[in-house]
Every structure is written in C-alpha cells, then in structure tokens.
Specification:
18% of the residues lie in helices and 30% in strands. The chain has 214 residues and is of the alpha/beta class.
Length: 214
C-alpha cells in the first residue's frame, strides 16, 4: 500500500486544524478533514503544488470553525461527510452566531453522506473506521486510519485537554464516556490529530490528561 501523506494546516480565525490527505504517487485525489472559514486559498495552494484534485471533505463535527469554509469550495462535485446529530448546524449555521466570530457569514453545508458509529469508509483501499464521540457537540465523529496508526479526532480531545462541553449540545459526562470508549480503546501508539493545537498519542493522554483519566 502506498504511503499516506498528511498536510496539517492551522486555518481560520481561531486557529483550527485542517488536514489534507493523499497517497504518495497515488491517483491524484485528496481528502480534506475539516474546512475552517477562509481555508480554500491555503488548501488550493497545496493541491496545486502536489498536483492533486480534491475528492471529498470529511467533517468531524458541525461547529462553525470546522465547517465554515466548505461553501467556498465547488461542492457540487465533492463528497461531504458528516454525522446527522449535527444536521441542524450544517444546514442552519446561523444558530451558532452566539458563539461564532461576530459578523462572520456562515453558509449552509449540504452533507452528501451521513456516517455513524462503527461505519467503515473505503479510502484508496484502506478501511477507515468512524467512531461517534458526542459530548463536545452531538455529532462529533473521529476517523481512525488503523493501518497508519492515526486518528483524526476533531474537538473530542486535545494534547493535555478536552473539548469544551459548555456550548449548546455539550455534556461533559457524555464527552468523558466518549473518550473512554472510543479514544482510550485505540492502540496506545495511535497518533491523535486534534482540531486545535499539537498532535498527541493515546498512551500520553491515558497517562497524563488531567480531565479524563484512563
């Protein structure tokens, strides 16, 4: 199997991580995990430099800082993945105005494929497992690339921290359960790619995360 390339980009008004994924010497396709506001120009530059064409946008959740840039792309040809529990935020993003950047125009996102817990996605012959991890918001999902030992976790967990649970739809007890059942059950050496800040590993968080002990 060809090597997986991951380009991490810190984008948007509150430094949200987006990840562009493609295969080295692959078929020229790329998948973007999360699309912060104003991300298109940076993403497009990487696509052009690597001679890639964007095939899909996989959204970890419906918060504005992770999906606010989707509408800037030519979405009629893209697969857009998300979890149905965040449908109202994807389709009516104006409801997030109370906790978004003032004056930011948020356009609706049309999800083309709803995914659920335990679902398997095929990406260039790889099996990617979706795990539903509510608590930060109802529809947060993570994408586990088992063969590469990577998991893209959105705002479920960060290096030494966890996602906020005080926003609408958040619940710390639910978030803690999600982390125990869907993050800490990953292999210890799994690299975690969070939606903000630095990457971390499952074993590091199990041993030292002050918010959710293993």
């Amino acid at each position: 199997m060809k090597n997986l390339c991951v380009e991490k980009m810190e984008l948007g008004p509150i430094a949200t991580n987006a990840f562009l994924i493609w295969e080295e010497n692959g078929n020229g396709e790329a998948v973007l995990i999360d699309a912060p506001p104003f991300s298109k120009e940076t993403v497009q530059q990487v696509l052009e430099n690597e001679k890639l064409k964007l095939r899909a946008i996989w959204l970890t959740h419906g918060h504005w800082d992770h999906m606010g840039g989707v509408a800037d792309f030519s979405t009629n040809k893209l697969e857009i993945i998300g979890h149905r529990d965040d449908q109202v935020m994807f389709e009516q993003p104006g409801i997030m105005s109370s906790f978004a950047i003032p004056g930011l125009e948020l356009k609706p996102v049309q999800i083309t494929q709803w995914v659920g817990h335990g679902e398997k996605l095929d990406l260039w012959g790889r099996e990617i497992e979706v795990r539903h991890c509510p608590g930060h918001c109802p529809g947060n999902v993570v994408f586990w690339f088992k063969e590469e030992g990577r998991c893209f976790v959105g705002d479920v967990i960060f290096a030494g921290s966890v996602g906020r649970s005080d926003l609408p739809g958040g619940d710390f007890a639910v978030l803690k359960k999600s982390i125990h059942e869907s993050i800490y059950t990953l292999p210890d050496d799994t690299l975690l790619h969070p939606g903000h800040g630095e990457d971390t590993r499952v074993d590091l968080e199990k041993s030292s995360n002050p918010f959710v002990q293993a």
